[in-house]
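Lecture notes, structural biology module. Today: joint structure prediction for complexes of two components.
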Amino acid sequence: MPTIVVEVMPKAELLDPQGKAVAGALGRLGKTRFTSVRLGKRFELTIDGHVDDAVLAEVQELADTVLSNTVIEDVIGIHVLEAPAGETH
Amino acid sequence: MRIGVVTFPGSLDDRDAARAIRLAGAEPVALWHGEHDLHGVDALVLPGGFSYGDYLRCGAIASLSPIMAEVISAANSGMPVLGVCNGFQMLTEAHLLEGGLIRNDHGSFICRDQKLRVESALTDWTGGFAAGQEITIPLKNGEGGFIASADTLERLEGEGRVVVRYVGMNPNGSLNDIAGISNMRGNVVGLMPHPEHAVEPGFGPDTVDAMRSGTDGITFFTSVIERMLVSA
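The predicted structure, tokenised, for the full assembly:
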């Protein structure tokens, strides 16, 4: 069954306290080459049947209205996940 | 005078809100998120808590609940609606109020008695205060940082829609120290601090007079009752 991936990130201009906390931990581990961390969300939507333009349009709409809040987040990517190797259709 | 309090899965402060409504002199009506019925109430409170475990985003799944269709329609036709904390988050997710709430800038949950300045006494929920009055009510949140675009902020400030502002310290990184805002009409108000936790002597914030004697929160509820009596 095909899976559609939607990726959402906090808006770049907003503080990302979760990312900052992770960056702080990396610093404490001595991983100083990483100057910042930003932390977002990945949704995997599995559907019955095949992915067509109508499905992708519906996912786009859901991404903009439910999966993200455009006041505080951006949808940065929507793509169809490749079937894992060995899976047959 | 009947004021509904909507309970969502994960609501915490619905009983406290109902108690505040009763102490203020109205009849609280328990409403359930899964219904499409406001039971003829005159006003509504969306209480604090962690609806749906704050999954997806705080207040996001609750804002899609069956009863929210009725809440949105009632709010748009002028019914007074107060959103406290998680309720404020729901109001922004439902687009009844602008802006959004993000994780506190310091990354930690914060719980304290918070001083606020009432910036607008023109809303349905703050008419009993004087503009500029300073009050203290409890604040408890992990994601209370109010944010909005520069344009939206300017409009909220210019239109007098900042209802309460943090005084003394900004507990969560909210832009312009904003603790609560209203819609244009002033019937929909959302704020992060909790008026319903400062309504009865002995159980409120400390004051200079006595420990736990603060009851500044009750005025939100008496204000809406007075407003409804005037318009009745």
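Point to remember: Chain B touches chain A through 20 residues (CB under 8 Å).
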